[in-house]
Amino acid sequence: MLDFLHMILHIDQTLGIWVAEYGAWIYLVLFLIVFGETGLVVLPFLPGDSLLFIAGAFGASGLLDPVLLAALLVLAAVLGNTVNYHIGRYIGPRVFTSNSRYLDRKALVRTHAFYEKHGGKTIILSRFLPVFRTFAPFVAGVGSMSILKFQLFNAVGALLWVCGLITLGYFFGNVPIIKEHLNTIVLIGIGAAAVPVVGGVLWRLIKGQASRP
Question: Which of 42, 48, 41 is nearest to 135 (CA)?
Answer without folding.
Answer: 41
